[in-house]
Amino acid sequence: MRAVYETPRPENCAPPRILIAFYTYSGSTGKLAEVLQRLTGGTLTRLYPSQPYPSRFPELLEQVRREIHSHHYPRLLPVSESPAGYDIIFVGTPNWCGTVAPPLAAWLRRNRTALTGKVLLPFYSHCGGEPGDIAGAVRSLCPQAQVGPAFAACPDEGDLAAKLGVWLTGCGVLPTFAV
After folding, report:
1. Number of structural domains, the chain?
2. What does the pLDDT read at residue 179?
3. Do the strands 146-147 and 119-125 form a parallel or antiparallel pair, or are they unpaired?
4. What does the alpha-carbon distance between residue 97 and residue 62 come to, in Å, rounded to a whole number?
5. Could you give the CA distance from residue 92 to residue 101 in angstroms, rounded to a whole number?
6. Which of 2, 69, 93, 98 is deepest in the core (most CB within 10 A)?
7. Domain-located, residue 178
8. Residue 48: burial class (beta carbons within 10 Å; 0-12, 13-18, 19+)
């Protein structure tokens, strides 16, 4: 895995500012975001659609498929953090139909200019469905950003902190990792 954040920093230079922007439906992606926050010290920003998704799975799946195929970007509730002041932005989503959830797609699209030149590191939760290309979807929404490899995990999959640590070290975000 090639490190995406390779800019050498002088010893007296502040560490990179980290934002963790994520959408979670069932809480699985939120769990990943919280572990990332503990490992990196980043700022958490949870995204909420202005109209909540249906709670019943058949209706949820129908709506999600419709939104993804029509490139619908739902309105979001306001968030307090802008990506402009951050160096590295983790972007989290459930894997919906092999791509990012529409709320995260809406946030990425809305912040495309502020994300130019930034390091974006996608992470996602899944339940074993179609893998898709989450990093590719983020790259297509933010073509002027440096998009690193995506991290994927099932909701109750082993030691998330250790697995995320290996990924973070490979991406060049953590120089070393110890549990």
Report:
1. 1
2. 41
3. parallel
4. 11
5. 9
6. 93
7. no
8. middle
Q: How confident is the model at residue 140, as a pLDDT?
A: 96
In a domain, 179, yes or no: no
- pLDDT number for residue 12: 55
* pTM of the predicted model as reported, rounded to 2 decimal places: 0.89
Crossing angle between the packed helical segments 102-110 and 134-141, to the nearest 10 degrees = 30
Is 110 within a domain?
A: yes
DSSP 71-130: T----B---S--GGG-SEEEEEEE-BTTB--HHHHHHHHHTTTTTTT-EEEEEEE-SSS-
Q: Which domain, by its residues, includes 74?
A: 18-171
pLDDT, tens digit (0-9, with 9 covering 90-100), for 107-124: 999 999 999 999 999 999
Q: What single-letter amino acid sits at 88?
A: I
User: Which residues have C-beta within 8 Å of that of residue 144, sequence separation ≥ 6?
Assistant: 112, 115, 116, 117
- Please, are residues 53 and 63 in contact by the beta-carbon 8 Å criterion? yes
pLDDT of residue 176: 47
Structure confidence at residue 2 (pLDDT): 47
- The list of the chain residues with pLDDT below 50 reads 1-2, 7-9, 176-179
- Residue 4 in any domain: the answer is no
Q: Which residue is associated with the tokens 């970007």?
A: 73
CB 45 within 8 A of CB 80: yes
CATH number for 147: 3.40.50.360
